[in-house]
């Protein structure tokens, strides 16, 4: 195993409050001990071996946590279930889960807790106190667990390995969620209908389909929400606030979940694997959508017409056909759009931006569809075939025009379905 990196250039004057710099990646630290731990993510050094099994660890805290897996002696048994504990205070806490005893009451709201540490943690939701500060960046956390998980973003540490595949995770809850991709377990059941989910967040999202009351209205638009957290997130679409910055690039995000997804563009992590074809995804929602390409499931029906969709986003876009809603407003002119992507394309008319470059010639285009059409002038591809005659065309618009001129009789409706193996046009 590679030895610890040398201390040359470990100190720098570039930042007085973080004088210890990693010579491999230039990350800075306030304490030399933090730099020492961080270096092990580069070297792979694990100087803390377990004296019971053959595992080793990068720091002593991990070793201490691991040793508890060997500590089988748990002399304090619960007389109501088969749980056992190493300490009597842990047994006493556990018993309260059977008795419903919650002697520690919050003086700011009506919540109560089985032990005092949970009350202390809860109180911080009222006070906003975040006493656990990261030594590398400016983030703070309400509890030590939050800081520990966050710290692993800096170190790259993933101490929770899956025993089925070769993936590992920064925290135990992520490993638990991942394991369900192997077992198919869905422990979160809806108490209104018969649906079950592998994650509590998915169940919470589903439950809102049963709830009609939305007591949290937005004071900037006409939307209302089932809880205050969703209202807070929604308001950021009006204010433009993005309080979650990426520590590897200059991007910021309105929601922490979007930051988590974005970070995977840096790490290349794709933790969500399809059990039908093996394709993996960075985001669980992408896996869910992908699975429907295998099953053909379209669980989102339109309540106005008979169409159904594979994902809620497609249903939302479709609904605007019926409502005429165009929520995406151009800030340069007075045009509005039903789909955000169309607004993005439209803005390029004002800016002149053409980010889609042809790799054959020097032409560039404002949108990907323009580039796709243009490439056919190089390849000669004509994927849009007329089902009446034998002509083919490079784009759907030209096919539509051809059929209207050549094959539509007066007072005869224009048929919009293209049949041929190459492609099918629907609602051209």
TrEMBL record:
InterPro entries cross-referenced by the UniProt entry: Znf_C2H2_sf, Znf_C2H2_type
Cellular compartment(s): Nucleus
The UniProt record lists the keyword Repeat: yes
GO cellular component terms, semicolon-separated: chromatin; nucleus
Domain of life according to the entry: Eukaryota
Molecular-function GO terms, alphabetical: chromatin binding; DNA-binding transcription factor activity, RNA polymerase II-specific; RNA polymerase II cis-regulatory region sequence-specific DNA binding; zinc ion binding
Example GO BP: epigenetic regulation of gene expression
Keywords in alphabetical order: DNA-binding, Metal-binding, Nucleus, Repeat, Transcription, Transcription regulation, Zinc, Zinc-finger
Domain C2H2-type: 20-47, 48-75, 76-103, 104-131, 132-159, 160-187, 188-215, 216-243, 244-271, 272-299, 300-327, 328-355, 356-383, 384-412
Gene3D superfamilies: Classic Zinc Finger
PANTHER family found in the cross-reference section: ZINC FINGER AND SCAN DOMAIN-CONTAINING, ZINC FINGER PROTEIN 112-LIKE PROTEIN
Protein family according to the UniProt entry: Belongs to the krueppel C2H2-type zinc-finger protein family.
Name recorded for this polypeptide: C2H2-type domain-containing protein
């Amino acid at each position: 195993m590679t030895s610890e990196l040398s201390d040359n250039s470990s100190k720098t004057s570039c930042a007085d409050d973080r004088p210890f710099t990693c010579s491999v990646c230039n990350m800075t630290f306030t304490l030399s001990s933090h730099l020492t731990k961080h270096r092990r993510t580069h070297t792979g050094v694990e100087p803390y071996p377990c004296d019971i099994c053959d595992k080793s660890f990068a720091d002593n805290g991990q070793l201490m946590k691991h040793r508890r897996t060997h500590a089988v002696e748990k002399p304090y048994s619960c007389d109501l279930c088969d749980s056992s504990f190493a300490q009597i205070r842990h047994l006493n806490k556990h018993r309260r889960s059977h008795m419903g005893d919650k002697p520690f009451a919050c003086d700011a709201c009506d919540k109560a807790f089985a032990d005092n540490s949970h009350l202390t943690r809860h109180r911080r939701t009222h006070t906003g106190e975040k006493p656990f500060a990261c030594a590398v960046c400016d983030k703070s956390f309400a509890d030590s667990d939050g800081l520990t998980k966050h710290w692993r973003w800096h170190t790259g540490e993933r101490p929770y390995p899956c025993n089925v595949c070769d993936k590992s995770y920064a925290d135990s809850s992520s490993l638990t969620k991942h394991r369900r991709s192997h077992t198919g377990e869905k422990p979160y059941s809806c108490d209104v209908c018969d649906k079950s989910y592998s994650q509590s967040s998915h169940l919470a999202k589903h439950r809102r389909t049963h709830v009609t009351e939305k007591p949290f209205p937005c004071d900037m638009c006409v939307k209302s929400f089932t809880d205050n957290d969703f209202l807070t997130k929604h308001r950021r679409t009006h204010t433009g606030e993005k309080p979650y910055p990426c520590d590897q690039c200059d991007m910021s995000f309105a929601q922490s979940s979007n930051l988590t997804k974005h970070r995977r563009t840096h790490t290349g992590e794709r933790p969500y694997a399809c059990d039908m074809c093996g394709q993996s995804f960075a985001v669980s929602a992408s896996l869910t959508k992908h699975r429907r390409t295998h099953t053909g499931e379209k669980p989102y029906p339109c309540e106005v017409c008979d169409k159904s969709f594979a994902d809620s986003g497609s249903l939302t876009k479709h609904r605007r056909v019926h409502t005429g809603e165009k929520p995406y407003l151009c800030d340069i002119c007075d045009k509005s759009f039903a789909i955000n992507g169309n607004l993005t394309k439209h803005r390029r008319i004002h800016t002149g931006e053409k980010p889609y470059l042809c790799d054959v010639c020097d032409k560039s285009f404002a949108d990907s569809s323009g580039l796709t059409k243009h490439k056919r002038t190089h390849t000669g591809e004509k994927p849009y075939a007329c089902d009446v005659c034998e002509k083919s065309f490079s784009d759907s618009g030209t096919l539509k025009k051809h059929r209207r001129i050549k094959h539509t009789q007066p007072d005869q409706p224009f048929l919009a379905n293209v049949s041929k193996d190459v492609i099918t046009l629907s609602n051209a």
